[in-house]
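Slide 14.
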Amino acid sequence: LTGTTDANTSVDVMVGNQTYSAAVTGTGWSLTLDAPKINAIGQGPKAIAVTSTDLAGNASTSATLANVVIDTVAPSAATLNALASLSDGFINLTEANAGLTFSGDKEAGSSVKLVLAGTELSPTQSTNGTTWTLTLNATEIGKFNQGATSVALLSTDSAGNTTSSSLSSVT
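Slide 15: predicted structure.
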């Protein structure tokens, strides 16, 4: 965080309920929020307020300069519902021609990508925010090589935190 102030002042920055002394050089100030400070501030919405104090002890009126949301926690891993056609671990010609519909659950507010053989596919996210669905037709399934194919899910929350889960492989 950076800002400007009058010369010969000290600057305190309040983030949530934690107050930190900023480094002041001339009329500029800065404060680095490292991991221990962010952990002390905690998760969720936080107001940022700044107060400067001159050598006589006169303090400026603190005002909320910004509101931020601290989110350093990855979302819960998405789940993949069992597919009856994959219970044996193989996709045969009949199953491939019929197409496959993958679906599962996810944390509200997160997005999910299904990763097949290293290719990220974007499922449809439900309007209730907690489920996802992806249907592959025969042509799309045919794009994947014969043999073992890895299956994984990537869950990403609105802050960009990601959880990856390797589920299995199909042949």
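Speaker note: The longest strand covers residues 44-54.
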